[in-house]
Amino acid sequence: QVQLVESGGGLVQAGDSLRLSCAASGRTFSSYAVGWFRRPPGKEREFVAAITGSGHGTAYADSVKGRFTISRDNARNTVTLQMKSLKPEDTAVYYCAARPISGSSNSDHYDYWGQGTQVTVSS
Question: Is residue 39 classed exposed, middle or buried when 0-12, 13-18 and 19+ CB atoms within 10 A define those classes?
Answer without folding.
Answer: middle
